[in-house]
């Protein structure tokens, strides 16, 4: 067997590099070894490879990561590393205060007027400035776990967003944030780093595995392929034969564009999601995974990508202490062994979870109170006169010691009277502390850009090509349409029922062409068809609003551009519109007794199809602008009424007041109504 494997490996080594990195030797359960194209790696093979490498996440993950590291170091390769620095970082927001901050109708319109007058510099802004971060400086080093602590409203989320390059453009920002000495405008920070939000925003109709697989597909493989190609060349030159399972894992993880990735199965394994991998994520209306599992999906959605810098915001919310420890321990192994960078914000971590971190950043009132090794944090506060009790968790002590309400109980200099030490005094004292001096000295020396790995920083805006992005979004949209097929089946039934009503109401035997009154009856039947086509697009409103939160999150994370998301929704739903309008026209055209010409039959069908597409586009636009169900339905109902009333049938053009004539000319229903009326009334049966 060993000879057979050696012969197959020798044959594989003779292939050119571009072919060699896409093929591997797969050992089956029976002991047979076969060469396999990793582009066609199936789900069973992927899971067996992961099972062999990481049978138990708690025990085998560290061994697997060391194997990964040793393979690269054996031929002189290193993983890309990122050092994040922030210097004199200030973030300020402006907002209304008092009664002006309340969401009233009066304030809404007054704020719009004031904003416009302020934009043209006629009226000064009434908004008050609120500092969020003040003069924050520090270094987040690769290969070290950094814990971000602070009481509520201390600016933790803002700091994470600033470092990840995701701050709101309306905020006033000063200072400098650099990755390996490069400023934020020199690369794409949203793809270089991964920001993991504390809000769990997912599509409920997708399973855990599908959610992570889509994320991995959109984020691409980063520098993995180039590293693997160089690794393969060096191993061939040194005549080194790697572990077959490890080799297959690395090669499969470097192939982009696959609908399912071996990296997805690995992340599912280490996050403990294998028990619910094929369960729907769910929401309030769809039964799915638990809140803790959903939080782990949020984490996995970002770490499944190639990003080397992780900024995690409250990833322990909804998790028990044991699960939090397991996840943080897995992250620690990855950070330490693969030399990644991580800044993790946790709310009241357990002592055993706290001990997993190497560095601490303590924020309070937007100022850095301490930043440095975990071992020295208590030394600093003892130097300031505050001591952590023996049976008190250090993390809880750090979050309470800067609070005016809780500070006095930790005062240790009993011979001296206690006086409240403000956050500013703590921050100034830290600058004079030896750890503060050390960090200031490091910040004073610029990072040597020559030492930055070429694959550390992302220069492309998106992880894969536009064609692959469109294919990924199309595949996901088709999957969601299958999951929501009840909606489309119901719409088909609805069209059939409404067609039956139209046939019985405007029956051919009762429809004559002798008087103007008869023409009005026919016009009424045509208007009925137009209204049906218009209302049929109303379902797009709710279907779009439910997906908007996840769309905005993934768009801002540069998973895909807006057009790649929108285009498949329009294209894939076009055949459904074709079928719906075909059902209606085929069931009603000849029973009602319209002009028997086949050409006019197809013209009417085309016109109703275009009106239906217009309605779908109109309600999709309203959903995108409204963003919430209440606002969108309010504006949607208003738009629907306006289009109907000003379309020229309910009120004829001559009866519309002069100041509303513009509404008549911009109503799309008017053009559809005129076209469908001309198509019918210029027919041969009306010529006499």
From TrEMBL:
One of its GO terms (molecular function) is ATP binding. PROSITE patterns: ABC_TRANSPORTER_2. InterPro entries: AAA+_ATPase, ABC2_TM, ABC_trans_N, ABC_transporter-like_ATP-bd, ABCG_dom, ABCG_PDR_1, P-loop_NTPase. It is a multi-pass membrane protein. SMART domains: AAA. The chain crosses the membrane at residues 486-509, 521-539, 574-593, 605-623, 629-651. It comes from the Eukaryota. Its main location: membrane. GO terms for cellular component: membrane. Keywords: ATP-binding, Membrane, Nucleotide-binding, Repeat, Transmembrane, Transmembrane helix, Transport. The keyword Transmembrane applies. Residues 117-390 form the ABC transporter domain. It is found in: Membrane. Belongs to the ABC transporter superfamily. ABCG family. PDR (TC 3.A.1.205) subfamily. This is ABC transporter domain-containing protein. It comes from Genlisea aurea. The lineage of its organism: Eukaryota, Viridiplantae, Streptophyta, Embryophyta, Tracheophyta.
